């Protein structure tokens, strides 16, 4: 049966429709052309690399057409794709490579330095270079595909077979691999098209990274399902995005609040032709009201979205009219999505009261890779996913996020988990104790601040700790401020009372300003 091969099915229906515009090169691909590339890629995995259903292959690359080749090849082959974050260090990547058990890695030439370092930490059957190889023994992606002539039939998969594994940081300090089955990939696309009322003439610029669930699942998959067009950027550049919106007559745009703030601050905001835009949607963090009002003044509706990697990213929807009427709300659950709000005793809370948000539907993940305890904690026996987020529902059934139960914070739309940072800080020889909190910051929404207790006789500086972490963590995880204290407030059971740290920071600093030492961007 066919399940996750969204591209193949769309190519069968509208083969000559433009599917993709590659912004940096100006290349344009029809659904037929894009599907053929993915079909050849899938055959190369099977026939040239010897990969079978269930084997894992990684990709470490910026946004480019070859990323889509690999992603859609997973839907055709049964081979599991593991996208890797391009901002991670070799040390962080090594953990994911080993944890996933991948046999091969496709890599971008622009990331050659980290690949060289990674090669010293892990062993793989195959390394495949999209550009110039790091090592003479590496395969060239173009050669691999050009020598693949027998494409063969699509592989039969079941709905619950894993399509890809997306790693997300965990509160324990180690990333967890979210299992996205073929069923989830397809249903996320269907639900989004129906609930967001997407159309075959919709065009969207995609500048969020494709290794992230938002880059893949918000507009790429849904628009390919309905037969729309994606304008793919290599990365985010505000001026380039405005030019693309005008040139390609874009109709729907995804971003995080930080992105919409940077677009607002770009000079082109005041003059860009927005007549083609139907609406914009923000996710990843709470959307400030001033941004909604600024875009409304330009005649454009900016909606608030909500989702998680584990539940298909897109979970709620609202009309343009409701976006204005229910400002601040994330809307109502999408079609075929159930939502509940429970108190600490597991009882449903009435309208207007806050409870933990639980979600259930065909777009929910299958759990976590090699992590049965984490899976059991998040997915109960009835199929409800426990998000850990707190929300309230009004009398009309519209939901509003009230906060996060976990002490995670979101910087520039990216989840950051303090436990991971704290674990690395404690490896510094001059650090005795450490705790990290998120504080408000006008550009990135939140940034990290580390409270550090130095060891006796040691006096590490903020610059020293920042440099120490820079080689061990992605840049956006490195705290932007360091506060040195004699001790951390703890409960009788030894748990750090982070509310006291938040209160101390609020007393001693203007939280509307940048955190101390925040001259770097995440």
Radius of gyration: 23 Å
Tally of individual helices: 17
Helix share, percent: 25-40%
Number of domains: 3
CATH fold node name of the largest domain: Rossmann fold
> How are the strands of the largest sheet arranged?
4-3-5-6-7
Give unreliable regions as ranges.
511-522
- Distance N to C terminus: 43 Å
Q: What is the CATH domain class of the largest domain?
A: Alpha Beta
Largest sheet: 5 strands, parallel
β-strand percent reads: 15-25%
Global shape: globular
> What integer is the average pLDDT?
90
Indicate the structural class: alpha/beta
- Annotated CATH architecture of the largest domain: 3-Layer(aba) Sandwich
Tally the beta strands: 25
Nutshell version of this structure?
Helix content is 30%, strand content 23%. The chain is of the alpha/beta class and 522 residues long.
């Amino acid at each position: 049966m066919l399940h996750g091969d969204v591209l193949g099915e769309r190519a069968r229906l509208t083969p000559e429709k433009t599917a993709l515009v590659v912004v940096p090169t100006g290349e344009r691909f029809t659904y037929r052309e894009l599907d053929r590339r993915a079909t050849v890629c899938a055959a190369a995995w099977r026939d040239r690399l010897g990969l079978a259903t269930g084997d894992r292959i990684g990709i470490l690359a910026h946004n480019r057409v070859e990323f889509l080749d690999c992603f859609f090849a997973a839907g055709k082959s049964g081979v599991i794709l593991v996208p890797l974050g391009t901002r991670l260090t070799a040390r962080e990547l090594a953990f994911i490579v080993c944890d996933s058990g991948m046999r091969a890695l496709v890599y971008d030439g622009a990331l050659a330095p980290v690949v060289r370092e990674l090669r010293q930490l892990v062993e793989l059957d195959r390394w495949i270079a999209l550009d110039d190889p790091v090592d003479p023994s590496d395969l060239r992606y173009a050669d691999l595909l050009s020598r693949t002539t027998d494409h063969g039939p699509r592989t039969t998969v079941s709905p619950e077979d894993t399509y890809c594994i997306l790693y997300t940081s965990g509160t324990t300090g180690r990333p967890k691999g979210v299992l996205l089955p073929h069923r989830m990939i397809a249903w996320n696309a269907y639900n989004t098209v129906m609930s967001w009322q997407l159309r075959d003439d919709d065009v969207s610029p995609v500048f969020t990274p494709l290794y992230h669930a938002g880059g893949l699942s918000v507009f790429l998959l849904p628009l390919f399902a309905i037969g729309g067009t994606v304008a793919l950027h290599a990365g985010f550049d505000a001026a380039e995005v405005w030019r693309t919106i005008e040139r390609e007559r874009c109709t729907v745009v995804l971003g995080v609040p930080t992105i919409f703030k940077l677009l607002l601050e770009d000079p082109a905001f005041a003059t860009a032709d927005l007549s083609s835009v139907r609406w914009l949607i923000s996710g990843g963090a709470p959307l400030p009201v001033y941004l909604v009002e600024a875009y409304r003044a330009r005649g454009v509706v900016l909606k608030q979205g909500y989702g998680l990697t584990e539940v298909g990213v897109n979970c709620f929807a609202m009309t343009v009219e409701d976006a204005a009427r229910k400002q601040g709300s994330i809307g109502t659950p999408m079609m075929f999505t159930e939502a509940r709000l429970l108190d600490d005793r597991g009882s449903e809370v009435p309208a207007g009261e806050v409870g933990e948000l639980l979600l259930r539907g065909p777009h929910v993940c299958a759990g976590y890779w090699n992590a049965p305890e984490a899976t059991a904690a998040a997915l109960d026996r009835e199929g409800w996913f426990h998000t850990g987020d707190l929300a309230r529902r009004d009398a009309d059934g519209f939901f509003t996020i009230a906060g996060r139960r976990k002490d995670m914070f979101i910087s520039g739309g990216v989840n950051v988990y303090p436990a991971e940072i704290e674990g690395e800080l404690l490896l510094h020889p001059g650090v005795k104790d450490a705790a990290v909190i998120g504080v408000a910051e006008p550009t990135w929404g939140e940034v990290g601040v580390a409270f550090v207790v130095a060891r006796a006789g040691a006096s590490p500086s903020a610059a020293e700790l920042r440099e120490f972490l820079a080689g061990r963590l992605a840049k956006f995880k490195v705290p932007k401020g360091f506060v040195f204290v004699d001790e951390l407030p703890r409960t009788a059971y030894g748990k750090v009372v982070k509310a006291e740290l938040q209160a101390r920071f609020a007393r001693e600093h203007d939280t509307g300003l940048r955190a101390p030492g925040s001259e770097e961007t995440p």
